[in-house]
Amino acid sequence: xxxxxxxxxxxxxxxxxxxxxxxxxxxxxxxxxxxxxxxxxxxxxxxxxxxxxxxxxxxxxxxxxxxxxxxxxxxxxxxxxxxxxxxxxxxxxxxxxxxxxxxxxxxxxxxxxxxxxxxxxxxxxxxxxxxxxxxxxxxxxxxxxxxxxxxxxxxxxxxxxxxxxxxxxxxxxxxxxxxxxxxxxxxxxxxxxxxxxxxxxxxxxxxxxxxxxxxxxxxxxxxxxxxxxxxxxxxxxxxxxxxxxxxxxxxxxxxxxxxxxxxx
Length: 264
What we know:
With 264 residues, the protein is mostly helical. The chain folds into two domains: 1-116; 121-264. It has eight helices and three strands, in the order ααββααβαααα. It has helices spanning 2-26, 32-54, 64-82, 92-108, 121-155, 169-197, 207-230, 235-262, and strands at residues 55-56, 59-61, 114-115. A three-stranded antiparallel beta sheet has the order 1-2-3. The longest helix has 35 residues, at 121-155.
């Protein structure tokens, strides 16, 4: 049953992608209502399957694939909501494709990492902040890539300015730094709750998460300082945003991947 739901959800994700891409390629209007219907259906099925995969009789199954699928769901939900206010067509095929792949992997490949959050509210708060900080900063990395791509094409005089499906460059830049600021605040909360509520955070097997998360926080803080105080823009901003997201990915998934797939 789980695999069937994953297939149907993935189908709706790809229908949304198929509705978007022709408009981007041909610079024609995109049927926003159709995209929204397909995406909303996919997200509802995604949420249904996640509840079945994560909620376990013995606790919560937070395997690496389930967490990855949950993060892709959060990103897809946020980006689909933002689609109603701004033109995000360039990024949505990547977001929906990523969600479909993660969902299919979580439903098809076995994995188990049982935890008990219902009896540990501080841990629940910490995990909530970690999930949303990572999701937000991943969205920031996607914005940075879109910003770099548009800037490159405009410099090459590819006449992107007349494409009605792409947002203005300055609008993307403002949204990028707003997203990174929110994500870094959430990451700050994640670090604080981790230090306060998680015992032996720098113990063997846990130290890399704390150290890499702190490094990522420094990267994003420097990026924000550089932009607001020094006027940083362009390629430097893109590299900082991608580097921060990459470091967080190593922090959140590095050791879990080794334990669940290599040493299992």
